[in-house]
Amino acid sequence: MKSNPLPDWPYPRWVAHRGAGKLAPENTLAAFRLGASHGYRMFECDVKLSADGVPFLMHDAELSRTTNAAEKLGAGYQGVSDIGGDHPWSALSQLDAGSWHSRGFTGEQLPTFEAIARFCIHNGYFLNIEIKPTPGTELFTGAVVAQHAARLWQGVAVPPLLTSFDIPALEGALTAQPELPRGLLIDALEDQPWSDWLKKAIALKCQAIVCNHELWNEETVAEAKAGGFRTLSYTVNDTAEADRLIALGTDGVITDRVDLFSPAS
User: Fold this and answer.
1) For residue 163, what is the enclosing H or E element?
2) What are the phi and psi torsion angles at 200 (to 5°)?
3) Rounded to two decimals, what is the model's pTM?
4) pLDDT digits (tens, 9 = 90+) for 89-147
5) Torsion, Cα of 100, 105, 110, 116 (10° steps)
6) In Å, what is the CA distance from 66 to each residue of 63, 90, 95, 97, 188?
7) End-to-end CA distance of the chain
8) For the chain, where are the alpha helices, taking DSSP H only?
9) 207/161 Cα distance (integer angstroms)
10) 242-250 long-range contacts, Cβ below 8 Å, gap at least 24?
11) Domains of the chain: which residue ranges?
12) Buried b (16+ CB within 10 A) or exposed e, 53-77
C-alpha cells in the first residue's frame, strides 16, 4: 500500500521557516516580506485558532514568548490565560508581535491566516501550513484550517501543503478537505519505529513526510520514496547538512538561514 502522491510535485526545494527564520519576528508579515526579499518563493508558518475561531499565525500555545500579552492583556498573571487560543481575535489583534525580536519590528501585529494567504497568492508564493492546535482542539483546528485553505486557494493552481505533528489535526484536515495535500511531521523515533510512522502517513493519505533532518538517511529516504512520499527536512541551517540531504535526493529543505542558502540552488 502506498500514499496518495500528487501527479507532479509543484513546490520549490527551499522553504523559509516561519517566514524568514530568525532574521525577523517569526510568523509575521514582516518575516514573509523579508524572506521574499532573499528570493524565497515558499514559506512555512504555524496556524492556530483564536477563541472565536479566527485562524492566525503563532507557533507557541503561549503568548508570552513572541508578544507583549503580559503587558497588554495581563496574560500569565492573576488567573489571566497566557494561551493564545483562549483569547478572541479582537484582543489578539492588538498585540505587539515584533518588539520581542528587535526594536525595528516594534508594533508588528499577529497576522490572520487570511492575510498571509492573500500575500502569498497575490505574489505567486507557495505555503506550507503547519497546523498547530491549542491542546484539546486538534481535530477541530485541522478541519477549520483546511476549510479556510480550500476557500482561500479556490481557483489557484497550486494549493498549500498542510502538515502537522498532531494525528487528529491531520485527520480533521483529511475529513474536511481531502483534496488538499498533507504531510506528516516527525521529530523522533523513540516512541515508534519508522515503519509505524509510514503506516500512519498512508492512513492519513499524506503526500509527504516532513522530518527532523537527522532522521533522513539512505534507508529512510528509500522507504519513504517506495511508499510514494515526498521527503522534506526541518530545520536545516548548516551547509554540509543541506548538501547531504540534497545528495540523498530529498525534495524539500526548510531553513532559518534565508541569508545563507540561495533558493535558486
Assistant:
1) strand 161-164
2) -65, -45
3) 0.96
4) 999 999 999 999 999 999 999 999 999 999 999 999 999 999 999 999 999 999 999 99
5) -140
6) 6, 18, 10, 6, 26
7) 34
8) 29-37, 69-72, 89-92, 113-123, 138-152, 167-176, 194-203, 218-226, 239-247
9) 9
10) 245/213, 245/216, 246/13, 248/216, 248/217, 248/218, 248/221, 249/221, 249/225, 250/216, 250/221
11) 14-60+111-255
12) ebbbbbbbebbeebbbbeeebebee
Residues 186-214: pLDDT tens digits? 999 877 899 999 999 999 999 999 999 99
The predicted-structure confidence for 153-164, as pLDDT tens digits, reads as follows 999 999 999 999
**Cell numbers for 51:** 477563541
Q: In this structure, what C-alpha cell is assigned to residue 141?
A: 483546528
Residue found under cell 541569508:
259
pLDDT band, residue 1 (cuts 50/70/90): low
Out of 3.20.20.70, 3.40.1160.10, 3.40.50.1100, 3.20.20.190, select the CATH number for domain 14-60+111-255: 3.20.20.190
* Confidence check: pLDDT of 247 > 70: yes
The residues carrying an active-site annotation are: 17, 59
- Helices 113-123/138-152 angle, 10° precision: 30
Residue with cell 516532513: 210
Note every long-range contact of 161-164, with CB atoms under 8 Å and residues 24 or more positions apart, other chains counting.
161/11, 161/126, 161/127, 161/128, 161/129, 161/207, 161/208, 162/129, 162/131, 163/128, 163/129, 163/130, 163/131, 163/208, 163/210, 164/130, 164/131, 164/132, 164/133
- Cα–Cα distance between 20 and 69 in angstroms, integer? 23
